[in-house]
Amino acid sequence: QVQLVESGGGVVQAGGSLRLSCAASGRAFSSYVLGWFRQAPGKEREFVAAVTWSTTATDYADSVKGRFTISIDNAKNTVYLQMNSLKPEDTAVYFCAAGSRRSRWSLWYDYWGQGTQVTVSS
């Protein structure tokens, strides 16, 4: 079993920055991919970014490329999402997830956190 807990959400003005954290515990992560998804009210869950734990290979949605950075800290068993140049359309609940392969499809992820709210004001 893997437990994931997101933190770092909040309210920020457009153009600002925010860093989300996802603390992982339980099963070893060497064979996992860590991903970030987001879901705005009335919208489907959307892929944001993913990183392969063992290789640090990354993938980003086109909408966040150049603005968001996903990274991991092995010592802390934590994955981060650094969000810069935030836009109002980035407003959503952000979820951390762990899966068996790097994918943009949420069905490939087996474990999910509770989510953290990010609100970007204009």
Would you write up a description of this structure?
Helix content is 0%, strand content 54%. With 122 residues, the chain is mainly β. A hairpin with a 5-residue loop joins β5 (46-52) and β6. The chain starts with a strand and ends with a strand.
Task: Report a brief summary of the structure.
This protein has 122 residues and is mainly beta. The protein is built from no helices and 11 strands.
Count the strands? 11
Distance between the termini: 40 Å
Determine the fraction of residues in helical runs and give it as a percent range: under 10%
Give, in order, the helices and strands. EEEEEEEEEEE
Q: Choose one word for the global shape.
A: globular
Mean pLDDT reading: 94
Main sheet characteristics: 7 strands, mixed
**Beta content:** over 45%
Give the key terms:
mainly beta; 7-stranded mixed β-sheet; 4-stranded antiparallel β-sheet; 54% strand
